[in-house]
Amino acid sequence: VFIPYPIIDTFITSGYQWNGISSAKKFIGFENWKTLLTDKNFWIAFRNNLVIMVLSIVIQIPIGLALATFLDFGGKKLTIFKVIWFVPLLMSSVAIGFLFTYALATNGGIVSTISGWFGGGNVDLLGNPKTALLTVIIVICWQFTPFYMVYFMAAFTNIPYDVFEAARIDGATRGQYFWRIALPLLVPSMKSAAILSMVGSLKYFDLIYVMTGGGPGTSTELMATYMYKTAFNNMEYGYGSALSLIIVVECIAVFGLINALTKRKE
Fold first, then answer.
1. Phi and psi of 228, rounded to 5°?
2. How far is residue 70 from each of residues 16, 20, 76, 166, measured CA to CA in Å?
3. What is the pLDDT along the chain (266 residues), one digit of tens a residue?
4. What is the DSSP string of 56-73?
5. What DSSP assignment string belongs to 174-228?
6. Residues with Cβ < 8 Å from 129, sequence gap 6 or more?
7. Fewest beta carbons within 10 Å, which of 1, 175, 183, 200?
8. pTM for the predicted model, two decimal places
9. Is 80 buried (19+), middle (13-18) or exposed (0-12) by CB count in 10 A?
10. CA-to-CA distance for 169 and 22, rounded, in angstroms?
């Protein structure tokens, strides 16, 4: 009821020209889908989503694995770092968005203040179309890297301790144990983490909407923010429904593709 029905109803709505309020709906068939294929703003949002997807994997998973390895090798004496590093994941995305909006403000922000110490001027990271997307990606990675840290810590616990003892008895250093034994055994977990990161990166909305609203211009526009503006700001529910279905289809396609590429016999 709560999964198939909204999807089916959204697909039906995508065939209408409708403002979401009026009882009068104009059936236009696949015109919304045809418009979508030639919509420049949609393809910009699609490209931005791909950039976030790739950089999220490149940044979050290696750092998360490094933190998990550090904590696993360090033992209980590093528990305080586990707590501190996990804090960003406990915070609301909206709260983080406001926090970094003020922290990265052109006047009085952290970066501008540090720049002033060295004789530089104010730095506008979120207002510059060339740096806005990268800045938002860094904030996203700051928030979600702890998730992958905990994920890989759980994966480390699935490696039998006997394997580590056998490696040490055979003279393996901790580095050799990690690269030649632990890392190959963590590959299935890394694949799952990559799928989670890919699918999640296609659905980002709240943090970016709070920080930039998709701007400046369309430099940080994502499919989710573009769909929200189209449906709820411009009152184009039919076209907004088509956009939302594209996000669903892409998430399913990415999951299916990665699952097919990584599926193999044990």
1. -60, -45
2. 55, 52, 11, 21
3. 898 999 999 999 999 999 989 888 899 999 999 999 999 999 999 999 999 999 999 999 999 999 999 998 888 888 899 899 999 999 999 999 999 999 998 888 898 999 889 888 889 999 999 999 999 999 999 999 999 999 999 999 999 889 989 998 999 988 999 999 999 999 889 988 988 898 888 888 999 999 999 999 999 999 999 999 999 999 999 999 999 999 888 888 887 887 777 676 54
4. HHHHHHHHHHHHHHHHHH
5. HHHHIIIIIHHHHHHHHHHHHHHHHHHHTS--HHHHHHTTT-STTTT--HHHHHH
6. 216, 217, 219
7. 1
8. 0.89
9. exposed
10. 75
219 phi, psi to nearest 5 deg: -65, -25
Q: Kindly compute the dihedral angle of the four CA atoms of residues 248, 251, 255, 257, in this order, to the nearest 10 degrees.
A: 100
Angle at 113 between CA 107 and CA 117, to 5 degrees: 140
Helix, strand, coil fractions of the chain, as percent rounded to 5: 75, 0, 25
Q: Which of 180, 181, 199, 179 is nearest to 191 (CA)?
A: 199
Residue 30, both tokens: 């696949």
Take residue 81 and report the two structure tokens written for it.
């770092």
Q: What are the b/e assignments for 138-151, b being 16+ CB within 10 Å?
A: ebbbbbbbbbbbbb
The residues, ordered by sequence, that sit 6+ positions from 71 with a Cβ below 8 Å of its Cβ are: 78, 81, 82, 149, 153
Number of residues written out for the chain: 266
Element (H, E) at 96: helix 93-103
Element (H, E) at 242: helix 237-262
Phi and psi dihedrals of 17, rounded to 5?
-100, 110
